[in-house]
Amino acid sequence: MDDKTRERTRELPVVEMQQEEYKALQNQIATVSQQLSIAQAIAVKEKARSEELSNLVNRMQADFDNYRKRVNEGNKKLKEDGVCAVLEKFIPELDVLKQAIQSIPDEKVAEGVKMIYRQILDILTQFGVEEIPALGEQFDPNLHNAVMQVKTSDPTKVNMVVEVFNKGYKLGDRILRHSIVKVAN
User: Fold this and answer.
1) What is the 3-state secondary structure (H, E, C) of the chain?
2) 149-179, pLDDT tens digit by residue?
3) 184 contact partners, CB below 8 Å, separation of at least 6
4) pLDDT tens string 99-123
5) Which of 184, 185, 172 is nearest to 83 (CA)?
6) Closest C-alpha to 161, from 131, 137, 133, 128
7) Cα–Cα distance, 93 to 89 (Å, whole number)
8) Nearest to residue 121, comparing CAs of 93, 144, 101?
9) 150 and 183 in contact (C-beta within 8 Å)?
10) What is the Cα–Cα distance from 76 to 95, expressed in whole angstroms?
11) Is-contact 137 161, C-beta < 8 A?
12) Are 126 and 161 in contact (CB under 8 A)?
């Protein structure tokens, strides 16, 4: 064997080793590439799941906020209803006190009842209760309850309240008691 042949013979195993290493590296690259593709697919799937969960959390938060608002509004309404129910119980007592004031002959006793009457009016005012204007006003069935009618010759007084039997009261837009009135027709 000549030197060139020997040298080629020695180079063959080196070249074969390099080819095998090259093929092994190609296989590793293919495996890593396949794993990368799988990882990317999983990442896309997990990102979509993450967005779905994020949307679900946002919807749940909005639902909870709406629930809290409804509960607060419901509680506020219940409180208003309770306050109105209590205040409605006081209003007839004002009528009783007013009648008592008119019928008590002793001035000192009458003055004491007047003081109680004013205190109840002050309490109602503190809660925002207002008297419904009636006398001399145009009759409004939303505010007034007509129990009598009287004929009038004055055309400007037609459908006008001419006498108030019981005062009406309101709290904001809520009518606690309609004014009981006589109306001209």
Assistant:
1) CCHHHHHHHHHHHHHHHHHHHHHHHHHHHHHHHHHHHHHHHHHHHHHHHHHHHHHHHHHHHHHHHHHHHHHHHHHHHHHHHHHHHHHHHHHHHHHHHHHHHHHCCCHHHHHHHHHHHHHHHHHHHHCCEEEECCCCCECCCCCEEEEEEECCCCHHHCCEEEEEEECEEEECCEEEECEEEEEEC
2) 999 988 888 999 999 999 999 999 999 999 9
3) 149, 150, 151, 152, 154, 157, 158, 159, 160, 161, 162
4) 999 999 999 999 999 999 999 999 9
5) 172
6) 137
7) 7
8) 93
9) yes
10) 30
11) yes
12) no
- What the block records as the tokens of 181 is 């009135």
Among 127, 135, 136, which Cα is nearest to 174's? 127
The bridge status of strand 179-184 relative to strand 144-150 is: parallel
* One-letter amino acid of 108: K
